[in-house]
Every structure is written in C-alpha cells, then in structure tokens.
Write a structure and sequence with these properties.
Layout: H1 15-25, H2 28-45, E1 49-55, H3 60-73, E2 79-82, H4 84-94, E3 100-101, H5 108-113, E4 116-119, E5 122-125, H6 126-145, E6 150-151, H7 153-163, H8 170-176, E7 180-182, H9 190-198, E8 205-206, H10 208-221, E9 224-230, H11 233-242, E10 249-256, E11 279-289, H12 292-308
Helix pairs in contact: 1-2, 1-12, 2-12, 3-8, 6-9, 7-8
Length: 309
C-alpha cells in the first residue's frame, strides 16, 4: 500500500504540476482530478484513440463555447455527442445573440415581463430566439428548394455548419474538420421545436436511425476509443452504448454533479459500465464529482501544458 503524498505548492507551481501533485496525493477529489488529467492527456496525445466529446447541461451558455470549438480546431475531437440545447445556444451566438451574467436570486415573473429567460445565473433575451426561429425557417426553406425534406441530425448539423460564418461556432468548426455531431435528443430543443413548427406548412423530417448506422460504421473502423463525458444523461448513454459494439471504451473520464444512490446514469460512476460491456475491463477511467464549467477547463489546461512539453 502507498502512503498519501501531501501536496506542497509554491509560486512556480503550474496547473500541470498541481494535477501531478493531486494524483500523487491519490485520494478523495484531489486524487480523482489528478487521475482524470492524466487520462485526458493520454486521450488527447494518442492519435490511435478515437475521441468522443459528450456534452450535457448548459455548457455553451456557461462560457465553454470557444473551448469546445478550439478542441475541434486543434484536432482533439473525432465525434461530438451533445444535447440539442447546446447546439441551440451555439446557433444563437453564431447568429448574433449572446448570453448575459445574471443572478440565481432573480425574480422570474419580472424577467418574463422583460423578455428574458434564465438558466441558473445565465440570462438570455427572447429576441435572440426570435432570430433563431427566423434563420432556422429560412434554412429549412433553402433545403426544401434543393429538394431535401429528410436528414439525420448529424447531416443537419453538417449543412448548418456549411452555412455559418462564425469561426467560433462549434457547429462551424465541426463542419470544417469533418467532425460529426450526433444529437439523439435533438427534438427536445428549440431546434426540434422549430422543425415541428416548420412542418405546419412545409416538410422537414429527422432520421435518427440512420445516424445510429453512421456511428456504428465509425466505431467498427477504429483501433481504440476514448470518451470525455461532461455531464450525464442521454449523451453519456449514447456514447457508452455505442461502444458496446466493440466491447467497450478503452479510456474515459466523466465530470458530473449527480449522485449514484438513485441509480440514475448521470450519477453512476464509470466502473458500472464494465458490467454492461460499455467499458473494457482493461480500461483506464475516472469519475470526478463537480461542476464541469469549473473543473474541465483546469484539467484541460493541465493536459495542454503536458502536450506542449
């Protein structure tokens, strides 16, 4: 058995150094964060690892849009599995909208009167969603003019990325670098809602089954797989479930605020996936409990420092 190595830092300690020291401490949150950093570094540095980036929760409105776009631009992401909401908020900013620092203690009836929606302490203006609706309907009209009335969610994101000019857009960068975006819950978002409203006078359908075929084809071609799972829920399950086809993931980290006692997937530690063949018995993995917006930039910065060396 190893002794806990106590952490010592000074003015010369880098983020990378700190994560090494936390890994050496080896226990509690420090140990988990340190090990997650080492696993993330391995995922990013090994070209044979096909990397999934799974995104749940309000991470784009929460300030992580550029971070994800840069990861794609730098070649660190091979496929994205995301909630529809993060795609909505990426489009909102790509089309001139923005997110505002608000307050958890705001009086919601007043916000409603002022045309403001709230995500925790993040505010959004209704007028930006009106622009989103107009642009989406215009986009669907162009697709209809080209004789397209049915797409998979990943095909829809590809065609949207082709039209966008914002180089900080996740959807745009995914298009430029041929990174497929899968969104199994796309209908449960404002994009899905506006596909429904468009179908009141036009025709635009989504083929989710065909996207599963695309993903399975990708899975069968790769040597190793790694997953960066931010949050939980549907995107976590879709990522891990797809890897059943190859006996599970080789590498994985998850950052979540959820707890395991209820048995929900979001709070389940990654090791449970071994029993479902979603994670290989030989896999390297770590589950970190905490806020993604606070912790992921730290371990990513540490990984980048190590890659630079």
């Amino acid at each position: 058995m190893e002794k806990v190595k106590h952490i010592r830092i000074d003015e010369n300690t880098t983020i990378s150094d700190l994560m090494f020291k936390m890994e050496s401490a080896g226990v509690l949150g420090a140990g988990r964060l340190g090990r997650a950093t080492s696993i993330l570094t391995k995922i990013l540095e090994d070209p044979d690892i096909f990397t999934f980036l799974a995104i749940s929760g309000p991470l784009v409105p929460g300030g992580m849009r550029y971070l994800f776009a840069d990861m794609i631009r730098d070649g660190f992401v091979d496929v994205i599995i995301t909630s529809g909401a993060n795609l909505v908020h990426d489009l909102l900013e790509a089309w001139g909208g923005y997110h505002i620092i608000g307050s958890m203690n705001s009086y919601d009836p007043k916000l409603r009167e002022e045309g403001i929606g709230r995500i925790g302490d993040i505010f959004t203006k209704n007028e930006h969603f009106e622009t989103l609706e107009t642009n989406l309907h215009n986009f669907f009209d162009k697709l209809s003019d080209d004789g397209i009335s049915s797409l998979t969610p990943s095909e829809l994101m590809y065609k949207l990325g082709e039209q966008l000019s914002d180089e900080n857009s996740i959807i745009r960068q995914a298009y430029l670098h041929n990174v497929k975006i899968f969104s199994p819950g796309l209908l449960d978002s404002m994009i899905g809602f506006h596909i429904w409203t468009y179908n009141q006078f036009g025709k635009m359908n989504l083929d989710f089954v065909k996207d599963m075929q695309y993903l399975s084809d990708l899975i069968f071609e790769v040597k190793k797989t790694g997953a960066i799972i931010l949050g939980g829920g549907l995107t976590k399950h879709y990522t891990m479930g797809a890897n059943i086809l190859r006996d599970g993931l080789d590498y994985a980290i998850q950052i979540t605020m959820d707890r395991p006692e209820t048995g929900s997937l979001s709070g389940t530690p990654l090791n449970e996936g071994i029993s479902w063949q979603k994670l290989r018995t030989s896999a390297r993995f770590e589950t970190v409990v905490g806020d993604v917006t606070a912790l992921f930039p730290i371990i990513l910065a540490a990984a980048y420092q190590r890659l630079k060396k």
